[in-house]
Amino acid sequence: MRGPGIDYQAVFEASPSAMLVLDLALVIVDANASYRRLFDRGRDQLVGRYVFDAYPDNPDDPHGAGRGDMEASMRRVVETGAPDAAGPMRYDVEDPDRPGEFAERYWSPINAPVLDAAGRVVLLVHRLAELTDLVRSGGPAVDDRHLQMEADLYARSRELRQVNERLRQSHAREREVALALQEAMLPAPQPLAHHRAAVRYRPAVHALGVCGDWYDVTQLPSGDDAVAVGDVVGHGLAAAGVMGQLRSALSAAIRVVDGPAKALDGLDLYARSVDGALSTTAVQTVVARCGHRITYSSAGHPPPALAGPDGTVRFLDRATDPPLGAASDHTPRPQATTTYVDGSSLVLYTDGLIERRGEDIDLGLRRLADRLAEHRRQGPEELADTLIALSAGTDDTAVVVVRL
């Protein structure tokens, strides 16, 4: 828990806010001094216990909803990775010196996630502010109208939390369906006979988990390997639907025509009949082990990178044409061929890997080249992880790495 010059354990311990750290099973990992003073308990009475064993329900308050609301808030944080405020609530607390006796208490809790480097929830921070004195200060001098207003506000607060939970569940179901659709349209690539390949895709941060970027890695009847990536304009389910059609069309075309340029020619004609497909970019490559050749053609797509085992990086940019359907008339697309040496890595990607808002794209290409040279000894899986980390997360991103 130490950063440069900061002792975060000491910060946690000294915080004036009462805080617990919980694991994903809601077992107490630590409690700071403010929390221990608030409940008059030692660390040894708390750490290692399930939080609702340490703070059980009041059996004399059968209608109390404190535990249910509190646990629901914590579970939402675990599932969503987002902070959650449970709202003012009554949660009676057992007197540690008089087991079975509960004191009426009111709280304003906030639960927040602690994320690892991959963005996964690993711990929860539970922060409490006590409202008991504030609630009691209304006392008997408060008139009935005021009490009724407080009761209505509390009831509406619970209703809003319930509506929010229903919306969260609906979003979760929608995302589950979207992910199933994405996995059906972007299956894991089949192993290649002579080369190792790894793929990664990452939807934009605001997406449902689906995107319009695609990849395709397959072995042709000739024994050559065909590798392609593409990028449909837009995000979400609509873009994913178009992506599925174009990916299937290009995958079929490269199997029956002679070379990447003719495959993209066919895809261009097909895209003109598909709503939402115009201006899609794509690049198709064919790797021939005999002769160590790579033949490629691009429809407005960022150039593939060829990283040699000596650290040199070349961008394959000698056969680039406009995106699909962008030209007013259909003309044959260009095609180029280059050679490679054993141990090289062929990297295809979408623009989310190299583009930053307000930054020249050449800087992104240079950043990619530097990363490929630095990590050239990594295997395809490790290199794919290294490269996808370059994505800013504001655009969909797909990456394919093939070790030649």
Description:
This protein has 404 residues and is an alpha+beta fold. The protein folds into two domains: 2-137, Beta-Lactamase, CATH 3.30.450.20; 188-403, Phosphatase 2c, domain 1 (4-Layer Sandwich), CATH 3.60.40. 34% of the residues lie in helices and 25% in strands. The protein has ten helices and 21 strands. Strands 3, 4, 5, 6, 9 and 10 form a six-stranded antiparallel sheet that branches. A hairpin with a 5-residue loop joins strand 3 (18-22) and strand 4. Helix 7 crosses helix 8 (260-271). The longest helix is centred in the middle third of the chain and has 42 residues, at 144-185.
Structural topology:
Layout: E1 2-3, E2 6-7, H1 8-14, E3 18-22, E4 28-31, H2 33-39, H3 51-54, H4 66-80, E5 84-85, E6 89-90, E7 93-94, E8 102-103, E9 106-115, E10 121-130, H5 132-136, H6 144-185, E11 196-202, E12 213-219, E13 225-231, H7 236-256, H8 260-271, E14 281-288, E15 293-299, E16 305-307, E17 313-315, E18 320-321, E19 336-339, E20 345-349, H9 361-374, H10 380-388, E21 397-403
Parallel strand pairs: 15-18
Antiparallel strand pairs: 1-2, 3-4, 3-10, 5-9, 6-9, 7-8, 9-10, 11-21, 12-13, 13-14, 14-15, 15-19, 16-17, 16-20, 20-21
Helix pairs in contact: 6-7, 7-8
